[in-house]
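Protocol step 4 of 5: obtain the predicted structure for the target chain.
Materials: sequence only (see below). No template structures provided, no constraints applied. The aim of this step is simply to have a reference model before the mutagenesis design in step 5. Sequence pasted as it appears in the construct record:
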Amino acid sequence: MEQLTRTDEQYSQLVDNRLDQQIADARAGRRSSLSAKAAARYLGIHVETLGSWRRQIPPMGPPFKKGADGQGTANQSVYYDFQELDAWDKSRQGRTPKERKLQDAISREEQELRLLQLEAKLEVLRKEKAKLKRQLKHTNFATLAACVDEQDWVWDGSAIAGHVLQVDEPLLISAIDDDRVVSADLASALALPWADPNAREPFELALIQVLDDTRAKLADAQRAGDALRAQRTREALAQITPSATGQPRGPLRP
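Step 4 output (structure tokens):
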């Protein structure tokens, strides 16, 4: 075995010197980031404490980055921007341990709140996307389902200005900003006052056409049902009506 060139104490001192050099270079502007160990030394905490903060969900402590550290060190998995680290440290200075603990708890709650807000926003966007898809599918109001499905209309303050998929973009943007978009099925929308009768007319004609088509389909279904019931009645009677010889006779012929 080769003779050791340094003791544990010497190695520890070398590490401390290199970490101190990182901090000095960052303060002098010769480097922009610190390793995790140097960051922990700069903050005066154990490196495991810093690691524990990073592993929290959501993460706590100062902002950190992963990957190459900007100093050409590609194998540095975690590093801290010095300016961000310094700003975070200054925000904690002058506080008692209890205040710092409470501030950490507040930071965690704020991060969790931001995540919940993002999740809520994502859910709203998904619902709006699904709603828009339904509207795009039924905008022509060619079916009864499209007519009874609630859709969005632009309200100008006193009357319907039109469907959200058909009005001019400036008008739609203004309605969205001023919360003047109302939801209603076609019949309810037509029952409201309209700013332009010419804009209303195509929707009224579409509803009339759908109702006429629905009535025609119902009438066809009624006639088909009546014919089927009559046929079944004839077949039933044919089975029970006796012939002249007293024997049941076969099915009646039309």
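Step 4 remarks: Residues 72-76 have pLDDT under 50 and may be disordered. The longest strand covers residues 151-155.
Proceed to step 5.
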